[in-house]
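#struct-pred

JT: dropping the chains for the assembly here, can someone run the whole complex?
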Amino acid sequence: MLGEGIVKGLAETARNFFGSYVEKDRLTTVQFPEERLPQAEAARVFPFLVYDTDDMEAGLRCVACKICEVECPPQCISIEKSTGKKPDFVGKPQFYPAKFEIDVSVCMSCQICVEVCPFEAIKMDTAFELSTDDRFGGLHWAKEQLSKPNEHYQKIHPTEAAEVDAERAEKKAKTAAAEAAKAAAEAAKAAAAKTETTETEGSAKQ
Amino acid sequence: MTAPFVILAILAIAGATAAMTLRKLVHCALALAVCFVGLAGLYLNLNAQFVGLVQILVYVGAVVILIVFAILLTRHDELPAQTSRTRIAGLGVSALVFALLAWAVTAGGAKFGAAGTQPEAAIKDIGSALMQRYVLPLEVVGLLLTAALIGAVVIAMEEKKSK
Amino acid sequence: MTQGLDQIFVTLQHWAVSHSPAAVQPAVSILLPVVGILIAFPALFAITTVLERKGLARIQNRYGPNRVGPFGLLQPMADAVKSLTKEDLVPRSADKLVHFLAPLLLVAAVFVEYAVVPVGRNMVLADMDCGVLFFFAAGAATEMSVFMAGWSSRNKYSLLGAMRAVAQMISYEAPLILSSIAVVMAAGSLSTVTIVEKQAGYSGFWPHWYVLTPWGLAGFVLFMIAATAESNRSPFDLPEGESEIIAGYLTEYSGFKFALFFLGEYLGMFAISALGITLFLGGWAAPFSFLTWVPSWIWFFGKLLVLIAVFIWVRGTLPRLRMDQLMNFAWKFMLPMTLMVIFSAGLWRFLPSGVLRWLICAAPIALLYVVLGRVLQTDRKIEKRVYRYAE
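RK: done, full complex below.
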C-alpha cells in the first residue's frame, strides 16, 4: 500500500520522541562536565612520581638512576642527580633527583618509563583535564608537581598498588631479617671472640 | 500623471533599457524581471488586481525563470560587445513602430485620468466571462497548452530513446 | 471579557491611531500591524530553530542544545551573535550586486506574503479581493532569489543546487496552487478573510473546516507536501542538503547573509503553513463550538505550532528524496491527485449533504490513490543479484 512505510516510520519516530522523556535508558548521552564516564583501571595519561610517607622529599622512591630518561622515546624526561644520598625504604643510602622534569606536551603516554623503572618510582596518572593557558611553562612539570603520595596511587590503580606494596613489604621484611641475621651473626662472632680471649687468658694463667 | 504612475513607468522603462544594454545575459534577464514587476505595478495602479498579480505570478515566476534556464543550459554568458551595423535602420524602424502605437492609442479615444475606486474587472466578472462568453477561446487555449506539454514530453523522451 | 481579549490587538491599533495626529493616521494604522508581523514571526523563527534542534534530538534519542539558558532555550541568542560576528566572505569572482540582493529579495518577498494571512478575527493586514493569488505571486519572487543566489556565487555546486532548487519549486507550485483552487471553488472567493469566515460556522459542535471533507483532507495533505517542497525542507532538501552538494546555492554565503537565507526559508515555511491553516484548517476558528471563548489568534498560532511540529517530525523521519524521485512524485503522482481533488470538490458542491456525499466524494480520490500506487511502483521487481568474479 503506497505510503505505508511512511506512516510506520512516523510512528517509530513518535515513539522515540515520547519515549525519550519517559524511559531513562533511551538517552545514552553523558553530560560531560556534570557527569563523567568511569575510567578503566589501566587508564594512562601522563606520569607521576610516587612518594611513601607524608614527606615528599624523604619518601620519594626515585633514586635518579636515569633509566627512564634514557628509555623515553620522545626524550621528554630530564633528570639531575643529587650530590648527597638519603636512605630509601629499606634504609640503604641512595641518590635522589635534585631536578626531575617532564615536558607533558611531548609525552606520548607510552608507559615505557613505568615499565623500565626498577624502583616502582614512576607510575601513570589518570587525570586528563589538564588544559592550561600558560603556553610556555604550563605543560612543563617539575618534581613538585609530579610527586604524589602512595595513597593517590592506591586510589587510581588499586590492584597494581596492592601488588607493589606487597612486594615492597616483602623486600623490607627480607632485608630486616637479613639485617637481624647479620646482627645476630656479628653478636655471635663477638661473643665467640670474647670467649676465646677469656679462654686464652685462662690457659695463659695456668 | 500621478506619482505612483511616474515611478512605475520609470521602473518599467529602466528595466527594459537595462535588459537591452547590459553585458551579461543573466543581468539582462533580471532587469527584464524588474520591468515586468513595473508593468504589474501599473496594472495594479489601474485597479486591475487579477491581471497585475497574474503578471507577477506568470511572467516573473515562470517566463523569466524559463529565460534564465535557457541561458544556463546553453551557457552563453557574455555577449560580445559590438555595435550593430544596422543601427540607423534599427532606429528608423523603432521610431516608426512607436509612431504607429502612439497614433493607435491616442486615436482610439482612450481617456487619461485617475482610475475609479471600483475595480472595473472584478475577479468574479473575469471568471464568469471566461466560463460563459469566452469559453471557446478558453478551451482552445487549454488544448494548445496541452499540446505544448505533450510536445515537450515527447521531445524529452526522444532523447532518452535514441540513446 | 473574552471578546476583549480576542480583539485586544485591534483595540490597541485603534487607540494608537486615534491618539496620533491626523496627518499620519493612515501611516500609523498600516505600520502597527506591519511592526506586529515583523516582531511576531521572527520571534517564532527564533523559537523554532531551538525547538527543531531539540525535537530532532529527542527523536534521535539524544539531548538537543541544553547549555545556553534553561533547557537551551536561549540558543537563538548565541546563534544570532555568531552569525553577526562571522566574517562575510564574498568570492572574488562573484557578481557582487546580485550576490548581495539575493537574500534581501528572499526575505522581502516572504514578509510580503504575510500581508494576506488573517491571524485572528479582524486581524489581517490587507483584506484583498484576491488574497490567495497575491500570496502565490509573492512566492514567485522567492524562486528568483534562489536562482540569483546560486548563479551569482560563480560556483558549480551553487549553480547546480540553484537549478535543482528552482526546478523543484516550480514543479511543486502546480499541485500547491491546484489544491488551493479546490478551496477557492468551495468558498467562492479568492479572499482569505472570506475563506476563513466560510469555515467559522458550526453544525452542532462540529466545525465546518474544509479539512473535514474528503477532498479537503486529500487537498490538505497534498498542500502540505507541496509546501514542504516549496520551502526546500526535508525530505525535499536536496538543493541544500549538506551531504549532497555541500550547501547548494548557499555555499558561498556566510555570516549574516546565511542567517538571512535561513530566516527567509523558515519564514516561508511559516507563511505557507499559515496559508494552509487559512485554507483548510479554518484559520482562526476554534475546533469545537464550546471552545470559541479562547481568543482567535491563540487558535491560529496554536495550529501553526502544531503544523511546525509536524514539519519537524517529518524531517526527523524521512530520508531525502533524490532529484528524479522528487520530480516524478510531483508530476506523476501529485498533479493527477490534485486534479481529482478539484473534481471531488465540484461533486461535493452539487450533492445533498449526508454520509452518501462523503462516500461518493471520497471514492474517486481513494481509487486514484490506489491506482497510482500500483502503476507508479516500477522498481518493485528486484532481481536476484548476479556476481561476477575476477578470473
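JT: nice. Chain A touches chain C at residues 1-3, 6, 9-10, 12-14, 16-17, 20-21, 26-29, 31 (CB under 8 Å). The helical segments of chain A are 4-22, 67-71, 112-116, 143-146, 150-156, 158-205.
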